[in-house]
Amino acid sequence: MNLEIIEEIRDVIENRKENPKKDSYVNQLLKNEDKILEKIGEESTELIISTKNLNQENKKQEFIHEAADLLFHTILLCQSQNIDFNEVLKELQKRRK
Fold first, then answer.
1. Which of 49, 66, 78, 92, CA to CA, is 20 to 30 A from 39?
2. pLDDT digits (tens, 9 = 90+) for 22-71
């Protein structure tokens, strides 16, 4: 597994910023910073709840889904603020040393 998917997501977000599409979910969020922040809060809460439910049967996929949602919206937030998500990844690398 590599991080190519992160690059693909970043590329889609940048493309939507430069070439907006009317019915694009990404564009709808990019128009309103508060909506992005609401989604971060919502997805964080859903990830917390799914973590608490992991001991229940068949809840692993729900956790994975919510973690992916939070990561997507975090990447979107970074890109909306003109912060390259690679900078976040570099920070993680620095912390490992």
1. 92
2. 899 999 999 999 999 999 999 999 999 999 999 888 889 999 999 999 99
* Relative orientation angle of helices 4-18 and 60-80, to the nearest 10 degrees: 50
List the alpha helices (DSSP H) in 1-97: 4-18, 25-30, 33-52, 60-80, 85-96
**Is residue 24 packed enough to be buried (19+ CB in 10 Å), middle (13-18) or exposed (0-12)?**
middle
Distance, in Å, from the CA atom of 74 to the CA atom of 77, rounded to the nearest integer, reads 5
* Predicted TM-score of the model (pTM): 0.91
Q: How far apart (Å, rounded) are the C-alpha atoms in residues 60 and 65? A: 9
Contacts of 14 (CB under 8 A, 6+ apart): 79
